Amino acid sequence: MFRNRLLKLYKHKGKEAKRMGITAYRLYDHDIPEFPFCIEFYGPDLYVAEYQRRHGMTEEAHEEWLQECIQVISETLHIEPERIFLKLRRRKPGRLGQYQRLDQSGNEKVVQENGLSFIVNLHDYLDTGLFLDHRTTRQRVRESAKGKKVLNLFAYTGSFSVYAAAGGAAEVTTVDLSNTYINWAKRNMELNHFTGDPYQFVQADVLQWLKNADPESVDLIILDPPTFSNSQRMKDILDIQRDHAVLINDCLRLLSPAGQIYFSTNARNFVMEKEKIQSKEITDITKATTPFDFEKKLFRWCFLITKKFSVHSVS
Fold it and tell me: Does the chain have fewer CB atoms within 10 Å around its N or its C terminus?
């Protein structure tokens, strides 16, 4: 059953990925309950994450079952076992736990997406460095960035920044709390030959940085915060359901009159409190930004928020 499902998905999604010129895509995501894996291609390598659950097996029995599954994956997808990177993914709120470094091997490689290159690491971290579910959103940013001043907040490894630069943005500012990811973002930009003064990188607590940024200074903002964060380096605790309206309004203050925000969240039960947000136009673009390899399997929201008036005029 598992083998047949993998083969069917590989024939369909592999063909689509080749047509689109991408080498990183999700193949399988818990399609069969008895096989709770997330499986993603990164070039010739495979990232396999087992979702933690109560399986009722002894440690020895589970290890034997897991090795049998890896063998099926290897044989079905024609991937050598040494090119399969296995992780255990615990279901936690937000992305806080997912960013932790697991190893020090420095096992990096480069993958292609829409003519752009990105550094990924399938070994050292639970997440790989490229969120595949935002591939279509990134392309939309690329298509709307020409001549604009772009701000990428909670930027992680800067993939949105690369797309904005590729789209001809006049300036791109990348902000993240982690110095590790700011440096990763710089390397992604350099890999795609985007260097120099138009591209700025800021290691900062986004919540505090926003309060001191100049009003009406940018044209396009990418806002992809964690669902929850209580990092010791942050002054405040972030709960995106509770705090999203304030966070979005802080971003709207920075926008030029015709500016836009791409806001996304992975909070499953998220409810957009539109009445608290100082914008006349908030469009749910979740379906429109869902990539082919995440159809019916995507648990995130995405909105396009347009600044139609100055927030200073709102009482």
Answer: C
